[in-house]
Amino acid sequence: MLKIFHFLLLLLLHLLQAQALTSPSDISALKAFHSSIKPRSIPSWSCLASWDFAADPCAAPQRTHFICGVSCSPDATRVTQITLDPVGYSGQLTPLISRLTQLTNLDLSDNYFFGPIPSSIYSLRKLQTLTLKSNSFSGSIPDSVTTLNSLESLDLSHNSLSGNLPKKLNSLSSLRRLDLSYNKLTGFLPKLPSNLLELALRGNSLSGYLSKSSFDGLTQLEVVELGANSFSGTLGAWFFLLPSLQQVDLANNSFASVEISKPAGGNSDLVAVNLGFNRIEGNVPANLRQKKTLRRLFLDGNYLIGKPPADFFAGDTEVSGSLGDNCLRGCPGNSQLCTPRQKSYAVCKQAYGGKLQF
């Protein structure tokens, strides 16, 4: 009888160990998250369809319930990740997501979430990755996002977010990758986080000058994508002195001139530059060609004059890209760099106030 008792006790202990004890606040947050999504947008074979709260979300093994979309801490008490499959879920992001205080990764990308990003997101202090790209979020980016000191990657691209960028964006001291491309953001570029590797803000309505103060201390910045905005003025010589810069896309803005010091930039890694379709006047910035690593250069669609430097077309070192659709003369017709053809003299003369002379 005693042996049977010990056996039953061991079996009970085993069952208790196998049974997860997910935090009640985490469970209520998951329930709120699930209920905020339109039932008709949840396919029967999807991750969210397996969320059955008759079972514990962190219980193992997860063979029939919570088979995907949720990850938990090693002790199975806290939810640490929500990563949804891109199947077209539609709904709003509930403010009660803030109860998941141990969340490190939130990825809702490629669905149909709409409405604002809740300001209560500031409670997710351990969040390292926030990916809400390719949804229909609207409204402004909440200032509370800038309190997420553990955040390393923020991707809110391809939504309908509007308003200015948060003023204290630079307080995201751990941020390495920022992508807010293809929204409806306006205003100036604030001071940026000092540890950024990649900056992508393409396809917005940002305006004003690119200020050196915005980029101060960004010694690790490798990729800058600010194309298809309304930036204007002069692109200062300091920009190409950013020491780790490799790829630059500033096309389709309204820059009027570019300053490049000798030698071109302080870095040795510049590979690609796109300054096409701005309003840049004057001579081709020849110092760019002094960068031996440069492989792609687009300056097309501007109002550059004069004759392009010969070393742009030097044998095996010729870069790809385009100097076409400018006001250049003597651009070698047999070079791919010189296509498409240059603007007409009349267009160029008008751009220079009638004072242009070939």
TrEMBL record:
Name the record gives this protein: STRESS ENHANCED protein 1
Gene3D superfamilies: Ribonuclease Inhibitor
Compartments, as annotated in UniProt: Membrane
Span of the signal peptide: 1-20
GO cellular component assignments: membrane
Main location as per UniProt: membrane
Record lineage: Eukaryota, Viridiplantae, Streptophyta, Embryophyta, Tracheophyta
Alphabetical UniProt keywords: Leucine-rich repeat, Membrane, Repeat, Signal
InterPro entries per the UniProt record, alphabetical: Leu-rich_rpt_typical-subtyp, LRR_dom_sf, LRR_R13L4/SHOC2-like, RLP29
The Disease resistance R13L4/SHOC-2-like LRR domain, residue ranges: 92-251
